[in-house]
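A reminder from the course coordinator: this example appears on the midterm review sheet, so study it carefully.

Given structure:
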């Protein structure tokens, strides 16, 4: 293992709800690594100052809403995947440079494989949202084969910016109904449902055979995921993706795989 980072942190706003400290600290204990993973609430106006302070101690960490794209812009080096996404959820310092990666893509892959199985290579994905998490979804989908994304976002200009990065694999549509038409997987990459039981899409509007993937997670799953499953849909919230992206981040920081069982035990 190379020299340990001076701090290990999660940057976001808000972050009080995050489960990441719970399972990352369990992984650190299981590996015998003498660090504590801490969540830091960073308002957007304080992001650059915070990154400068963290650079002085060679910190590593994760990034969540709303900072993924802004941290990517601050990095001196990006992995090809982070560059593709235009968003960073994992960072570390190397030779005085801030390096960014995107392990959200691997997290999406893991959960989509469970939800879609053999249908993944040709799936049509209805994607709601056009931020950094949505970019990770598209980056995952483009690796599946002939899969395709229908992207809906209330801010159409933002949707077109994301689509332009990925080309023909993404079609920007102008209504939720267009996005859902024939979709094998419906992905919520918006904050809807994070603070309450709001649904990003009514369950009755989902295609009969569609699976549901909510990147939002809450205790006992999101209301949308519970309702979709009760209606007969395969469904998962963001908890599994959260753990998998966190495990992949751990590998980037320490060059070793974490004890995933210990991470899950910490949540359960």
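Designed residues:
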């Amino acid at each position: 293992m190379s020299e340990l980072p001076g701090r290990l942190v999660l940057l976001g706003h808000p972050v009080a709800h995050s489960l990441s400290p719970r399972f990352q600290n369990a992984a650190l204990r299981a590996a015998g690594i003498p660090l504590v993973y801490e969540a830091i609430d960073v308002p957007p106006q304080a992001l650059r100052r915070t990154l400068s302070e963290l650079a002085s101690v060679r910190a590593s960490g994760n990034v969540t809403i709303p900072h993924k794209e802004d941290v990517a812009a601050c990095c001196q080096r990006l992995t090809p995947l982070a560059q593709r996404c235009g968003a960073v959820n994992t960072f570390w310092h190397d030779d005085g440079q801030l390096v960014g990666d995107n392990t959200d893509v691997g997290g999406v892959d893991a959960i989509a494989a469970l939800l879609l199985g053999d249908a993944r290579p040709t799936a049509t994905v209805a994607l709601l949202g056009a931020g950094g998490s949505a970019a990770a979804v598209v980056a995952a989908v483009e690796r599946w084969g002939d899969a395709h994304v229908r992207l809906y976002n209330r801010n159409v200009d933002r949707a077109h910016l994301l689509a332009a990065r990925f080309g023909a694999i993404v079609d920007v549509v102008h209504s939720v109904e267009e996005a859902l038409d024939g979709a094998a997987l419906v992905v919520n990459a918006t904050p809807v449902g994070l603070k309450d039981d709001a649904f990003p899409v009514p369950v009755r509007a989902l295609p009969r055979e569609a699976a549901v993937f909510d990147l939002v997670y809450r205790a006992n799953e999101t209301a949308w995921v519970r309702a979709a499953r009760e209606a007969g849909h395969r469904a998962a919230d963001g908890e599994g993706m959260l753990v998998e992206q966190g495990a992949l981040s751990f590998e980037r920081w320490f060059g070793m795989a974490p004890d995933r069982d210990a991470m899950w035990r910490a949540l359960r």
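The CA atoms of residues 130 and 155 lie 8 Å apart. The domain at 8-102+242-267 is CATH 3.40.50.10860 (Rossmann fold).
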